[in-house]
Specification:
Bound molecules: 4-nitrophenyl phosphate
Shape: globular
Distance between the termini: 12 Å
CATH superfamily: Response regulator
Number of strands: 4
Number of helices: 7
CATH topology: Rossmann fold
Amino acid sequence: MQISVLFVCLGNICRSPTAEAVFRHLVRQEGLEDKILIDSAGTGDWHVGEPPHHGTRKKLDEMSISYEGLRARQFKAEDVERFTYIIGMDDNNIADMKSIYNRHAAGIERSTRNLDTCLRRFVDFIPGTTYTKVPDPWYTGDFDETYRLISSGCRHLLTLIKQEHGL
Ligand code: 4NP
């Protein structure tokens, strides 16, 4: 079975593309790129088609992590059916995903998935963290803090996925 991971934030230009790029990097390092499909999306549509924010690109360049080809897209109801792990960067992202799903699910094959368990929160993958959300550098300007937290979370997430799927 193909394992798939979707990271979701608001604009898909700061937090979720950082997570996508970092997670791709880790997955490639472990030679698991054929087993784990990775993507990201935003609940908003303002930046659709744009590359990551320049602050995100600067930080990823500094860490020698590729973001080649990443372009913002909007989260859609069908994503609920397509991805094994759907991970929001904060509680608003999760609430917005639910509302997008509930508005559009009538037009698609309705899921048997339980939204309350399949939409997960990124910080919940980090044992012992005091963060309740991934801070949004669009507002904080602190791309370093966001990168550190995302890097830690992606490592824990990969360990968990390897355990859960016997990789
Ligand atoms: P992100 O940050 O959700 O981490 O990509 C944001 C990017 C853009 C906006 C808000 C947050 N915006 O309002 O355009």
